[in-house]
Design brief:
Layout: E1 4-6, H1 8-12, E2 23-25, H2 27-33, H3 42-48, E3 52-54, H4 59-72, H5 80-92, E4 95-97, H6 101-109, E5 113-115, E6 126-131, E7 138-139, E8 153-158
Parallel strand pairs: 1-2, 1-4, 2-3, 4-5
Antiparallel strand pairs: 6-7, 6-8
Helix pairs in contact: 4-5, 4-6
C-alpha cells in the first residue's frame, strides 16, 4: 500500500490541508513545522482525525537512508529531518512529497517514489563527486584539494 510521506516543504505548500488522503511524517519534521496554521489548529485537526500520522522510522531504515545518502554524496546536504523522511519512506514503501533535490536524488537512487509540489521535480539522478578544477582530480569529499589546495567543486555524475 502506498503512503504519502511529507517533508517540511509539503506542509509549507499546504499539501495535507487541501487533501483528504492520509499522510505520514516524523516527529523531527513535525517539530519543525508545528507553528504552521497554529491559530486555526489545523495540524491538531489533522492529528485528531488521524489524517496525519507521526511515526519514527526503524533503525534499519535509518541506517539504509544514511548509507544511500553517503553513496550518492548528498549526505552533507541533508538534515536529520530529511534523513528521517527518506528512512520512513524506505520502511513504509511510500511516496515522498517534496521539492528538496537532495531528498529526491537519494530516494530516486533507492527506487522510491517521489512527487514534487511546486516544482517540476528533478530530472537528473546520480551521484555527486568532488573535483578539483585546478589539477582535475576527483575526491570523495572535502572542501580543498589535498594535492594543490584549490577549493573543490561538486558535480553530479548522471546515471
Amino acid at each position: 500500500m502506498d503512503f504519502r510521506i511529507l517533508d517540511a516543504s509539503a506542509f509549507y505548500a499546504g499539501v495535507p490541508f487541501g487533501s483528504a488522503e492520509d499522510c505520514y511524517t516524523t516527529s523531527l519534521v513535525y517539530d519543525e513545522i508545528k507553528h504552521i496554521k497554529k491559530n486555526q489548529d489545523a495540524l491538531g485537526t489533522l492529528l485528531e482525525t488521524n489524517r496525519l500520522k507521526i511515526r519514527e522510522p526503524d533503525k534499519e531504515s535509518t541506517t539504509a537512508a544514511v548509507k544511500a545518502a553517503r553513496d550518492t554524496g548528498d549526505y552533507q546536504q541533508l538534515s536529520k529531518q530529511d534523513v528521517s523522511i527518506i528512512a520512513l519512506c524506505i520502511e513504509l514503501n511510500g511516496e515522498i512529497i517534496t521539492d528538496d533535490f537532495a531528498i529526491s536524488n537519494v530516494a530516486r537512487n533507492l527506487g522510491l517514489k517521489i512527487s514534487p509540489i511546486m516544482t517540476q521535480g528533478i530530472t537528473d539522478v546520480g551521484k555527486w563527486v568532488h573535483y578539483c578544477p585546478g589539477c582535475r582530480t576527483n575526491h570523495p569529499s572535502g572542501s580543498e584539494c589535498p594535492m594543490c589546495g584549490t577549493p573543490l567543486k561538486r558535480k553530479l555524475l548522471k546515471g
